[in-house]
Every structure is written in C-alpha cells, then in structure tokens.
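Data availability (excerpt). The following record was deposited with the supplementary files.
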Amino acid sequence: MGNTESILDATSAHQADRDKDSGLLDQFLKDFNPESRKAALETKQEDGNDFATRLIIAARDGKLGFVKVLLRYEANIEARGTIKIDGEVILDCTALWIAAAKGHFDVVRLLIKQNAEVDCRISSNSTPLRAAAFGGYLDIVRCLVENGADVNAHACGNSTPLMTTCHSGHLDVASYLLKHGAHINLQDNDERSCLHYASKQGHVQLVCELLASGAKQTRNLNRLTPLLEASNNCKIEMVEWFINRSECSKEQRIDALELLGATIANDPHAYDIEKA
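Predicted structure:
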C-alpha cells in the first residue's frame, strides 16, 4: 500500500474516532487490512493544539469506548504525543499520563489493566501520579499507587507528587500519599519542602495537617521558612495562623510581620499602605 492510501486510511479512523458512536470506529478498523490498520493506529493527527495518536486523544477526552476499541486493535499503549493543557505544552505525553491529568478514572483503570507503564514520564519527568495529585483526583491517585506507582517520584526540579498536591491544596490526596509512603521532608532543588509549597499558597488546614504529621520548618535556598514564605506571598491568614502558635518565637513573629508589611507595601495586587 502507498503512503497516500495509508494517510487516507488513518484520516478515516480519525473521523470515526470523533463520532459519538465508537462502533463506527470499530467498523472502520475491522475493514482495514493489517498494514492500513497499523498506519491508522500509529499515525499522529492534529487535533486543535494537540498532535498525537488516536489513543492519546481518546484518553485525553475520556472516551472510554474509543479507548477500548483502539486497544482491542492493538494501538500502542505507550505511544507519545504533544498535548496542550492550560497553555502548557506537554511533550512526550502518553495516554495514561493525559487521562490521569484530566481526571478520567475509568480510562486510567483500563489502561493500567492493559499494562500501561504506571510510572511513564513525560519530557518534564512528571509521572501520571504527579499529574493526578496536582489535579486532586484521589480515586486516580489511589488506583496508581495500588498498582505500584512511585509515591516519591521526582520530576523536573526534584519536586514530588506530595509537593505538587500541597501546592494545589488537596488535603485528602496529601493525607493519602503520606499514609502510603510519601516522605514529608524531602526538598526540591530550591530546598523547598511540601510545607513550603502549602504555606506559599496559604493552605492553612493542609499546613496544620503537615505539621501534625512531622513536617519540619526548614529554610529554602532563599533562607525563607514556610512562615516567611507565606509572608513573602501576602498570605495574611496563613501568617496569622503561624504566629499565633505557641511554638512561634517573638523573633519569628517580628521577622514574619516585617516581611509581610513590606510585601503588602510593594505588591501591586495586595497594596494597602495602611495595612502595611
């Protein structure tokens, strides 16, 4: 078969995949000869800002029926593509990673059942667990961990799934990860811990949980403790919670309030000279 015919066959599969009825896709693939079917399954297609195989696109959209059909015809479960999420371009993205990032639990479960690599990494070294932890998808986090995902996998910058979910403020996911082996005092390349991530975003309840679970108040490369990180980012409620703890010394309170005041006076989004 010539290249032109292969491309036409792949395009037909692409159109079928966009149809609401996955049975149409099944019929298209069934009618192909093995060479045409392989081309249709492996050819990457442009889909908006994305460039990926049919399996990755179907996983992105949470189309479980399409994913089932494509896997039945032996689509490459570890194929890579380029996907854009919230303005960020994700290179070397797999079907499992994008399904986890988008919160499609049924698709994630099926892909894992079909032996998808649970710790597959994209170009930034992020794993599906990190993607699910960032989104706060506890059911997917649980599914990945139960199937062997590394809870302390380091991504670009040496951050972990726990740091990621602490940044997003997902208390339930953070608690689950801690109960299943996540190391609470690991630090990234800037020496920030999960406590820094949570404090910077002002997640008071999560910070309380982390401290109760043994998180240490270390300094990062900028010499900022989690308390000072909160001050530096105008998280007033977070700062007040910290300085009202009995463990907080007078010197720590003064340093935190001075930094908070300076930040309020200089931050265009929080500017309030009287409060400062």
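Summary of structural features: Residues 250-266 form the longest helix (17 residues).
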